[in-house]
Each structure stands twice: as structure tokens, then as C-alpha cells.
Amino acid sequence: MRNLLAFLAKYNHWFVFIVLEVASLVLLFRYNSYQGSVWFSSANVVAGKVYEWDSQIEALFSLSSVNQELTQRNLYLERQVNMLSEKLLAITKDSAEFRTDRTDVKAFQGYRLIDAKVISNTLRDKDNLITIDKGAADGVKKDMGVACGTGVVGIVYLVSTHYSVIIPVLNSQSNISCTIKDRGYFGYLHWTGGSSERAFVDDIPRHAHFKLYDQIVTSGYSSVFPPGILVGKIMHVYNSADGLSYRLNIELSTNFGRLRDVCVIDNTEMQERIDLLRAAQDSIKAKEN
What pLDDT digit, counting tens, does each position of 120-134 carry? Predict the structure, then answer.
């Protein structure tokens, strides 16, 4: 307390100056119309600029949530577009009445999408890996599919409490079932190194009919991915090593170099149905033996 009083006594003339200066400014701007208008205009400019900066800062911090929402929305819209395309194809081939019961959309809504951010990503290795900031505590499990707003990313490989490691398409161990959209021919997606923009779809049958730039989508033949998630488009066609099938060189729809926001696809209901079917098959085999 003594030090505070000594400080005030030592610099009392500065405090008196500040008080008198503030009082004079208040009297000047309050009781003089011209000076008051100048103060009001200047204050509005400063306040407006401060509010503008504040708005920009809030917008910057909200970009993360906006990107997550767009990623989810893109996945839903892509899926619905594929289903509508399939129904339109059915109409052109079959004169049966078009039904709008939306059962396919409801089935897709059974998938729960878990938002996540990429915190580590490699592109130059033969077996690249991606780490995301969601784990078992968020509902992520091994072998769940991962996608982004533009297409397939990979499959969950390892899970800890708060983090997960993904085997992306850009990994020699990746093996995802795909189909040529609207053509009905199936193959398996592989990456053999090199460009992060290209991969191969193998085992396309020799009798298959398709053309360049046809889209490749997930087949839905497993519980990992629903059918119709975009993978890429056909750029070149080669013969397989044994000459018994085609090998398609495709341009991937996912830009792995700029990958930030992803969604883990949780389809617990589908997995339960698969487990039940396997249990029934095992039971039948046991009885036969």
C-alpha cells in the first residue's frame, strides 16, 4: 500500500494531465456540433473496421465446421445422384412405372458418418498411411471405410482411443471392390506406386463393354463402402498380364495431396447382418458334417 501511494505521489501530475485531457475532449465533442460529427464519423469507421475484422476471424475459425458439413453433404448428394442415375437407366431399359418410395435413400441413411481431420498423410511411399484425429472413443472401428467429399479415401487399419490409421487407396495393400458405373462389370482397385492421381482396376472381364471416361464407383459388395461412392474415371485400357482380362488405368477423384476433411463410414447394421449370415452358414455346415 505504501508503495502504491508513493507511486501516485511521484506521478500525480501525469494523472491530473490525463484526467483534464479526457474532460476537455468530452466537452469539445459533446458541446460542439462540428467536432461531434467528426468524432461520430471517425468512431463509426473504426468500429466498422473492428467489426469487419471480428467477422473475418470468426469466419476463418468456422471454416473447419463448414468443411466437415460440406464433406458429409457431398457424400450424401453423390450417393443420391448415383441412385437416381440407376433408376433413370432402369426406366430407359424397362417401361415399368417409376417408383418414388425412396427406399434406397433410406437404406443409405443407415450409414453413420463420423467427421474426422487428417493430421498425417504420406504420398511418396509404396505403402502410404493416413492418420486421423478420431478413434475408438468416437466410434471408429477397424475395417470401416473412409471417404471425402470427392470420393473414396481408404479403410481403417489401426484404432487407438483418439486416433486411427488408414490404409488409403495409395497403398500397395489396398484392395477395394469397384464397378464401372451403369455397366455392371466388377474389378478390384490397386495402386502400384508413382503418381498419386492414378491407380488401376484389375480383373475386368474381356467381354465387358465400356468406354474411356466412364466412372468407376464402389460396388457395395462388402460392409465397408456403400455402392456408388465415386472412385475415379477410366483414362486408359490395357490387357492383363495373362491376357484373360482388362486392366483399367483410372484417374482418382480424390486429391490426396490436399486431403483435410474425411468421413468414416459406420455401417454397424450391415455388419450385424453379415455376422448373422455367417453364423447361419457355419451352423448349416456344422449340421451337414
Answer: 898 988 899 999 999
**Cα separations in angstroms, 199 against 113, 240, 269:** 26, 14, 31
Residue 141: exposed, middle, or buried by beta-carbon count in 10 A (0-12, 13-18, 19+)? middle
Whether the per-residue pLDDT at 46 is higher than 70: the answer is no
Of 158, 204, 200, which Cα lies nearest the Cα of 183? 204
Superfamily holding 105-267: Rod shape-determining protein MreC, domain 1 (2.40.10.340)
How far is the CA of 91 from the CAs of 53, 97, 149, 214, 228, in angstroms? Answer: 54, 8, 28, 20, 18
Apex CA 213: angle with CA 207 and CA 218, to 5°? 75
CB 96 within 8 A of CB 89: no
- Alpha carbon of residue 80 to chain centroid: 17
DSSP per position, 121-151? E--SSSB--EEES--GGGT--TT-EEEETTE
Rounded to whole angstroms, the Cα distance separating 265 from 154 reads: 11
Give the integer Cα–Cα distance in Å for 86 and 288.
40
Angle at 93 between CA 90 and CA 97, to 5 degrees: 60
The band of 63, judged by pLDDT with boundaries at 50, 70 and 90, is: low
pLDDT at 8: 67
Which amino acid belongs to residue 247?
R
pLDDT over 70, % of the chain: 65
Report the alpha-carbon distance of residue 101 to residue 95 in Å, rounded. Answer: 18
Is residue 133 within 8 A of residue 117, CB to CB? The reply is yes
Going by pLDDT thresholds of 50, 70 and 90, the confidence category of residue 95 is very low
Residues 191/170, Cβ–Cβ less than 8 Å:
yes
| pTM over cut 0.90 | no
